[in-house]
Amino acid sequence: MSKPLNDTVHRVTQRVIENSRKSRGDYLELMEREAGNQVNRHSLSCSNLAHAFAGAEEDQEAIRAARGPNLGVVTAYNDMLSAHQPYYRYPERMKIWAREVGATVQVAGGTPAMCDGVTQGQDGMELSLFSRDAIALSTVVALSHAMFDGIALLGICDKIVPGLLMGALRFGHLPAIFVPSGPMGTGISNKEKQRVRQLYAEGKASREELLASEMGSYHSPGTCTFYGTANSNQMMMEMMGLHVPGAAFVPPGAKLRQELSRKATHRLAEMGKDGDFRPLGRVVDEKAIVNAAIGLLATGGSTNHAIHIPAMARAAGIAFDWTDLAELSSAVPLVARVYPNGSGDVNHFHDAGGMGYVIGTLLDEGLAHADILTIWGGGFEAYSREPGMDGEALTWRDPGPSGDAEMLRPASDPFQPDGGMRLVEGNLGRACFKSSAVDRERWTIEAPCRVFEDQHSVNEAFRRGELDRDVVVVVRFQGPRANGMPELHKLTPALGVLQDRGYRVALVTDGRMSGASGKVPAAIHCTPEALGGGPLSKLRDGDMVRLCAVTGTLSTDADLDAREAASEPAPDTGMGRELFAMFRLGADGAERGASAMLAMAGL
């Protein structure tokens, strides 16, 4: 029998509800108004309708006669992202599956979907975070045709799932479902990949050797298999009840994957106004957001979601911040260790019990809300089961005990008693520390800092031997308003080498480090950012900086009040970055979600 809801989870949830009372009320009132007043296909003019289904071919007559629900697909397909390549044929299959239950499917529109793996360390990475707003806006444009009774969202990777959800929530009077496509097969071991990266950083491996290693890791269609932002997205969609249960980590091409996608299409058709109506704006409520945060903490997920969860919540009228995340982290134990926090990847995680096991053990210990409204008829408890095939039939079963105690443990006997994220704060601002990835003996460091204004300068200093000492590396002017808050993942090998050489090393930055954050202690997403006179802009080389995840400290003994801020670098141009100036100028802080779109909308 499950334990009662944990006191901390209850207290944080009640605070989120109270802090959101007005904004959530305004959102739900808007959704009621949209449901009652919005133009829909039953009231469109003949000319509007003719345009809308002119390309529908064999579904034209069914749409014209309104025989059943018409489902709109918003797709982030491209074959630059291995995770999204399988989506190529999804719409045509979904049309067939929809006809099986008397529904129709139209592709409402597409969204951009960039690969952070391709743009890491490149100029294009400065567009990455703001691509989330562009995706949300593209989703809104796609759904503006008012032809749809339900929304199927095809997206997996980093900014894409948050962007799709943020856009779809403005149509929260309609039901919606996410349809994933699964991870690629396991490649070379993660330990081997990390070894070659560090050898290359030291000049001991060639570019050809590095490329061969990387191709052994990223080798086929499907999501990258490390537990980064993309796979953390899939975990959160399960924790919020926005998938068919257990759909997150079934590989592309499997019969089970096809049947899960077929079931998603059927289920979306069932959730229309004449059926088991479950509008998205009601499914994504305060408890669902808290569940997403709990899943992130329990599995040691991507630090990017310290930005994305507040942004997704705001799109639904919900206020959620890092204080809420940190307090939940004090109560939610770490039950999973997936690379880079462990040795195995998401395929090993899934085989060991995966999301069904995680959700089951959290519910058993009263560490997640069981009473959320999901897209599935059985409620959230249904997500504690794992899918499988019984002949040609799709079934669900109890995942049983953990299949690998080094990968998954029960919440009653976790890897560590608290979650994977900590809030650190002091006279240098507020920041996030991913404690699940860092050995506990490295949770505290006090050392002179070395200040940089881009990650390339850090790597150059490393190659010159200038960082061979105890050091806190500060990389500033990397916040959303400065340059779009790029991930600084290129720092990981060099800092890892310094740590392996025996030095006490840490990173402090107003940029991001992503779900691929490694073993080096890091205070990331520092807010207020350096641009505009934030504390990091007043640090100087040699200032003592203290970072401590135990006490939640991020501070310096330097007298910052007596100093002028460093000169702010001019925004770079090229790669279209100049066209994103409006996003930079309008963005709010990382803790609020670093969104220009939401800030300018007054949300």
TrEMBL record:
Its cofactor is [4Fe-4S] cluster. Pathway: Carbohydrate metabolism; Entner-Doudoroff pathway. It catalyses: 6-phospho-D-gluconate = 2-dehydro-3-deoxy-6-phospho-D-gluconate + H2O. The keyword ATP-binding does not apply. It holds the Pfam family ILVD_EDD_N. Keywords: 4Fe-4S, Carbohydrate metabolism, Gluconate utilization, Iron, Iron-sulfur, Lyase, Metal-binding. One of its GO terms (molecular function) is phosphogluconate dehydratase activity. Binds 1 [4Fe-4S] cluster. GO terms for biological process: D-gluconate metabolic process; Entner-Doudoroff pathway through 6-phosphogluconate. [4Fe-4S] cluster binds at residues 157, 224. NCBIfam families: edd. This is Phosphogluconate dehydratase. It comes from Qipengyuania soli. The gene is edd.
